[in-house]
Amino acid sequence: MAGNTGTDFNYLEFFKEEIRNENATIKIGAVNNLHLIASALGPNRTVAELIPYVVQVVQEEPLCNDDEFLYSMARQYAVLSDYINGHDDLLIAPLEHLAAQEETVIRDQAIQSLCKVIEKRPALAPEHLVPTLHRLATKTDFFTARVSACALLPLAYRHVKDDQKMGLRRAFTMLCADETPMVRRAAAHKMRDFVSVCAKQDLLTDLIGVYKQLSQEDTQ
């Protein structure tokens, strides 16, 4: 992009062409330079045009089956946070989509980016992260989504309103008893983090049972 500095240059169309390129190096390079496109467009056009486009294209063939592309997008969504003038809520839904993917590295990166967005804007947790978490936790057709829900629970619990915490404890209890061993293992892996943000009385009331249950299983 170094040579494309004219004021009449169409940065968005350039980006669209680059990510459709059959050359993987060009395509991934375009994704990794997404912040440059956002900077050139400015926050208003990034919010109105760039983000809706990438949200759509990530779910369409052939890019929806390109793991390297999806991984790069999962990382770049967090970077876009600096170029959208506070509209970080627009990043939650596309990251939720990536957090349900089959490939572990894509899910992990999506979770990492979600955490960065929420840590930057904790006020998004009650209204945006909690519904996202509940959707992931109740996806019966994708156990990978439920694995991601386990990873998000400690962060969500730390930033939500008191009247939402019981629902999150119930979600965690449900995940601990999930029929899929991988989900139970993910819940067990996050048990210490989740317990650390819960009040002692809530632990005794809601979580001691699942703790004993998981401790009896080979979940390591």
UniProtKB/TrEMBL annotation:
Transmembrane segments: none annotated. Keywords: Repeat. Gene3D superfamilies: Leucine-rich Repeat Variant (1.25.10.10). GO terms for cellular component: cytosol; nucleus; protein phosphatase type 2A complex. It comes from the Eukaryota. The keyword Repeat applies. The keyword tRNA processing does not apply. InterPro entries: ARM-like, ARM-type_fold, PP2A_Regulatory_Subunit_A. This is Pp2A-29B protein.
